């Protein structure tokens, strides 16, 4: 039975389906889980290559998506080069992103990211509730790239 589960995951990866049901469970991801997803993506790029990491993210590999958490990557110019939840966002200029209060969150992500990682706080509309809610992105500068994952903060 375990082998069948492995086959299902491999097939899902091959055809780009959504992550397994376990990754789609109800609830919000935590700060620690967001940091772990970013670390996992960076580890993949260090072990194999940046190209492999970006390809896995853009293929919606379930290792980089957990409930409302997903990994994104910006290049040195602030262009989205990977987005594990919505690869159609690849090519977006993050410098154009603003929060619900008009703050330049994309610029903040680019300017404030560090090799050690840092949290960037802002306000965004939550697609689940339709309300503006506190959000925070964990961003890590790795060479010429910025890896990130965002969480909605508890009210």
Description:
Strands 1, 2, 3, 4, 5 and 6 form a 6-stranded antiparallel β-sheet that branches. The chain has a single domain, classed as PAS domain (Beta-Lactamase), CATH 3.30.450.20. The longest helix has 17 residues. The protein contains 4 helices and 6 strands, in the order H-H-H-E-E-E-H-E-E-E. With 155 residues, it is an alpha+beta fold.
Q: Can you give keywords for this protein?
A:
single chain, 155 residues, alpha+beta, Beta-Lactamase, six-stranded antiparallel sheet, 6 strands, 25% strand, globular, disordered N terminus
Shape: globular
Mean pLDDT score, rounded?
84
Q: What fraction strand?
A: 25-35%
At the third CATH level, what is the topology name?
Beta-Lactamase
Uncertain spans: 1-25
Number of strands: 6
Helix content: 25-40%
Q: Which homologous superfamily in CATH is the superfamily?
A: PAS domain
**How are helices and strands ordered from N to C?**
HHHEEEHEEE
The count of helical stretches stands at: 4
What is the number of domains?
1
What would you call the structural class? alpha+beta
CATH architecture: 2-Layer Sandwich
How does the major sheet shape up?
6 strands, antiparallel
Radius of gyration: 15 Å
């Amino acid at each position: 039975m375990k082998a069948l589960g492995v086959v299902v995951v491999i097939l899902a990866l091959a055809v780009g389906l959504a992550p397994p049901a376990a990754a789609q469970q109800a609830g919000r991801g935590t700060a620690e889980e967001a940091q772990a997803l970013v670390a996992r993506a960076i580890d993949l790029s260090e072990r194999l290559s940046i190209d492999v990491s970006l390809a896995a993210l853009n293929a919606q590999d379930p290792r980089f998506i957990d409930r409302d958490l997903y990994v994104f990557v910006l290049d040195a110019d602030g262009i989205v080069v990977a987005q594990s939840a919505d690869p159609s966002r690849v090519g977006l200029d993050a410098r154009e992103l603003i929060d619900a209060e008009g703050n330049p969150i994309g610029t903040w992500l680019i300017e404030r990211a560090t090799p050690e990682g840092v949290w960037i706080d802002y306000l965004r509309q939550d697609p689940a509730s339709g309300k503006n809610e506190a959000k925070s992105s964990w961003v890590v500068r790795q060479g010429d790239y910025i890896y990130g994952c965002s969480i909605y903060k508890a009210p």
